[in-house]
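Question:
Write out your own:
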Amino acid sequence: MRVLITGARGSGKTTCCVRVVDLLRTGGIEPCGFITHKDKDRLIIEDVKTSETAILAEEKLGGGERVGKYLFSDEGIEFGVESLKRSGDVSFADEIGRLELGERGFYRAFPILRERENTIVTCRDSFAEPVRSVLHLDNVAVELIDEKNRDSMPERVTLIYENASFHHGSRRH
């Protein structure tokens, strides 16, 4: 099952993903991929399988591509792509946005996301349709997160995967 979690900036998309990762692990389901966290004037990317982190973007980074106030590092992007290559039951890509819609950033990891049966992707609500189109997510549950449902959303999303059957010996890589 594929889930696209959308919402405005600061709506709780990343917080939802962090909680879903924890709930899946508790249920014996192995996550992989990446989650991004804001830390003062930079974005940190975390590999959800290994818990390793790297700097994805900074306001004052020396090189990379600028989106808004951030300069994205090539190393941070590569870190995210490599985290998606790891095996797991559910793949996370938090968040897909302007870079990827311009065929940059994590765009080259899209074939991985397209082939995986179980993925959770986040994006801003204004990018939902373009992200869906570029990722070819025809069969996807779109969940809009906001202040009214952000506390219940992690459990709702987790239930989708708890009802799936995972064959750990034949997991897609």
About this structure: The longest helix spans residues 13-26. The beta strands are 2-7, 31-39, 42-47, 53-58, 65-67, 70-72, 90-94, 119-124, 140-144. The domain at 2-164 is CATH 3.40.50.300 (Rossmann fold).
